[in-house]
Amino acid sequence: MIANAQTETVRDDTISQSLQSDVAVYSIFVCTWTAAALFHNIKRADIVGSPEAAAFTAAAFFALMKPRSLHRFMVVALCHITLFVSRTPNAGNHEAFAFLCEVCFVCVYARLAIRRDDRLQAAEWMNVVAPAMRWATVILYFFTVFHKLNTSYFSTTSCGAVLPVTFLTDNPLTAMLGLPALPESVRHGAAWFFVFASVAMEIAIPVFLAARRTAYWGFFAGFAFHFFLGIFYFWHFTPMLYALFLLFLPARFHEWLVYRFRHVNHCVIRKYPAFTPGRLLRTALLAAILSLPVLCLAAQEFEWLRLQVGLHNRGGRSPNTVPVITILCGWLPFVIYSVALAGAVGWFIRARNADAAEGGGDENRFRLRTAVAWLPIILVLNGFCPYLGIKTHQSFAMFSNLCTEYGETNHFFMPLIELTDWQRDVIWPIHEQKYSDNERSGLSLGKGYVYAAYRDAIFRRIQNGEANIHVSYIRNGRRHHIRDAESHIEFATPRPWIMRKFIVFRRIPLPAERDLCTY
Fold this sequence. Notes:
- The chain has helices at about 1-45, 50-65, 70-85, 95-110, 120-145, 160-170, 170-175, 185-210, 215-235, 240-245, 250-270, 275-300, 305-310, 325-355, 375-390, 450-465, 490, 495-500; strands at about 425-430, 450, 470-475, 480.
- The protein is mostly helical.
- The chain folds into two domains: about 1-375, no CATH class; about 425-515, no CATH class.
- The chain has a four-stranded antiparallel β-sheet.
């Protein structure tokens, strides 16, 4: 009897400790994932630009006030899903990735909705979702590398070469210091180095993260790589990767981080009861929520403010003024957030020494439950879409120089297994004086488009009430001149809504420009 009682006590303590670990992991994930979405909206200058954007911003701040609440985080996920659907097809790869993950969040929540214990539900939710997110991270990195294995990427003019060389040599700091331009031979050698280094790093990051003993190496490798890109430009999606990286670290790190925050909070309470970090943070978040209507109204009066918090969007016009809000409320907090996060991980390793350096974590951290098994499958299918002839945008092929149009591909070994002929039907917009206004559709002259994407661009103008739309393009070697496209049966008849939203195609460079850096 006594032995049984002791066994039950140990079992209860183990379950309690496990729940505390899952709640700690959940709390950190909610904060980092929500912060990542906010950083993206700030970079995109779409904080109050639409009811969906304003609702998401308010929901995000509200969730950060109580990160242990699963219900609040689900409101954030639902608002972010709605925001993505309203933006797409004008949305990036990382937004599509986040959208699929958040659909997974909501599906798991729906299965657990009958539970009433908020803490238990949050812990169980995290226990189900975390393995799926780890698989999703590995799959994301797999395709970012896989798509780059093409003849155009391994060139000194590809994105892998041009972006880092440009970031290092043509930035405000070098201009301020008046540093001389690098010799062409040095730039050429650096370009080749960055091409191979980018592929090597994107292979190493998921490999290190996946192995328990090298998880911290994976975190710092990913941090160094993406912080370098983020500090110059790509800070709108780097925080999302931070949230994913932390899921590979052992639960004891998350427990320690939560403990340290509570410890600091309790120390401050004893000396300054009215000015605890938690209370100040909640007050600031509440003030931010209440300021959203004021910000929205002010944006209607000031053009520079409207461009920075409302109107500027992917495909829209860029602000011409100094992006004060973007720098002070976006880039600068991103830098501080990144340094603080890396410092916290380093502090934990130093405090725990060899025990922490081993990584550790749940033995079943890649074990998928039935409720989330579909997410890796969808991500894999999405990644292979360019080779299946289904779509080329939002398939994790960003900046890869991959080409799969005309029934040809520049990939080293992956053949085309085309299920449709959409990518073979390519048109080239042309401009003829007093006849064509293609540029008003957001179409770049000198770039090719899959005909389905061209139709969608024209239909969006028709949907906005425009008339007398004149277009001119080359299709299958023949020139086409269409006056009043709003009356043309193909342009006036849209593709199905779901295809216009999710079956999206990128612009196609000229054959002579395939090696040049392009999104």
